[in-house]
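Contributing: when you submit paired examples, paste them exactly as shown. First protein:
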Amino acid sequence: MPPTASVAAGTTRDPWFDNAKMALVILVVVGHAWTLLPHNAVNDHLYDFLYAWHVPAFVLVTGYLSRSFAWTGRRLWQLVRTILVPYLLFEGLLALFRPGSSAVLVAQGDLASSSLVDGLRDLGHDVTAVEAYSTVARRPSEPEVATLGAADVVVLGSGSAARALAPIGSVARLVAIGPSTARVAGDAGLVIAAVSASPASDDLVAAIAAALAATDGT
């Protein structure tokens, strides 16, 4: 075989490696863009799985294809133009759209819903939830039960209050502060006459008036 043919055969690139390198480059871009997705268990696990292998594979394939790299000024400048400059450009653009992340400590009770923590994590924050207190159910005394029975309206300020009232029952009209309290009360078998949008006095007065009006038929 002529020497020229031998040299040509030795420098032939394997298209499989070129295609593999292209696929890995796309995965590198996907991995960087993944940080823009909401933080949750599924996205975080997929992100960790992707980075467990695609960058090492990219390095191996690139190293294999760079065996004949010549350390000349022309080739080095080509690397700067085709790799370093696009990398800095796209990383800078990505930084403009990457949401800010803050460390957030949430102190809550043992019966608290995880909606607040989950919502903050979906926004990209690093959330640590700690149990600051435990709710202990207390059965109202007989005088307290009598007071509840004589009341026209009973305001439930929390889900734990609704759970405590449920075994006793009440003929009074019940007003719940907020939809979460109303939901717990409903699950406990209590009938809510009105829901106050917030603990603010104006909202409470409006909810109590609505409960009284609904019962009186006015």
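Second protein:
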Amino acid sequence: MGNRTERWRRGSADRAIPRSISSSHRVQDRRTLHLRSRNNKDFSTSYPAVIEGLARLPDETVIDGEIVAFDEGGRPSFNALQNFGSSPASVVFYVFDVMTLAGRDVMCEPLDTRRRLLEQNVLPKLQEPVRYTPPLDVRLSVLIQSVKA
């Protein structure tokens, strides 16, 4: 599937250095949103709709997810992601975890607890094209079979 892991952070400029838990991150210094890749490349202007959807992210909060671009047929497309802006592709940021919530590191919490924190404290503040990715409560064999279908 054509997607890129993103890490989003909102906080003060002195807290702009993320821990390397996921591929990429976003930094907010209370004035400007910055979307940065895992190699610290600035993508702030590349995905303006995603930035708008995250505008109300609580201060000093880090969330994790995937940016997915879709081709004209509505299928995930890595090529559409790589060429985003020069093609009619749409993108969605699928959120699935929270690492820091309002300045509090929650990475030591169980995943179920982090998901609950995400659902209660972060998701209500986000807008399209940011969406929640619920857990896949299915046996691995069933998941693999559905991917092959």
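If you have annotations for the second protein, write them as plain sentences, like these:
DSSP finds four helices and seven strands in the chain.
The chain has one domain: 3-148.
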